[in-house]
Amino acid sequence: MSGRSHEEGLKDLTLLGNQNTKYSFEYAPEVLEAVDNLHPDRDYFVKFNCPEFTSLCPLTHQPDFATMYISYIPNQKIVESKSLKLYLFSFRNHGDFHEDCVNIIMNDLIKLLDPRYIEVWGKFTPRGGISIDPWCNYGKPGTKYEEMAHFRLMNHDLYPEKVDNR
Question: Of 64, 101, 108, 136, which residue is the catalytic one?
Fold first, then answer.
């Protein structure tokens, strides 16, 4: 039989396939789950697009809406997507600035996955006539991925992507 076995990380998952999933309305990094990367000998990107990300302004408590883009090159672990969805949902009532949200997401995924490389980009819809689009990245220190992170940061806005969510 082909496919992933329970010994390859499935036995540790608690959310995928669970019909009694509870949605946390408060920031909940503990819901994140990871499974073994079955291809650690290969560099490849895993990309997630979350067009329904919401958080709150920490002062006014008005809602902020964004498309959150997460891209990473896994090391030994990959994030389980349902847990990522629940984690991102947990920002719904979380009060933080846009810049903080993207950095918190990246830090939590670094802690969970220890990726070779990761970047998180939030394309927030305008409020008050201005949009804020924070982008952050990280490359594993002492590796070619650290150099990649520096290069991508220094060249980040040379070719801005088409803005299509507003």
Answer: 64
* Residues 25-83: tens digit of each pLDDT: 889 999 999 999 999 999 999 999 999 999 999 999 999 999 999 999 999 999 999 99
Verify whether residue 57 is a known catalytic residue: yes
Who wins on pLDDT, 89 or 127? 89
Q: What is the 3-state secondary structure (H, E, C) of 143-165?
A: CHHHHHHHHHHHCCCCCCCCCCC
Strand ranges inside 24-62, DSSP E: 34-36, 46-56
Q: Which of 36, 57, 100, 114 is catalytic?
A: 57
- Give residue 8's pLDDT band: very low, low, confident or very high (50, 70, 90): low
Give the Cα separation of 35 and 79 in Å (integer).
6
Residue 50: active-site member: no
Helix locations, the chain, DSSP H: 81-89, 98-113, 144-154
Residue 130, SS3? strand
Give the containing element (helix H, strand E) for 71: strand 63-73
Confidence at 14, pLDDT banded by 50, 70, 90: low
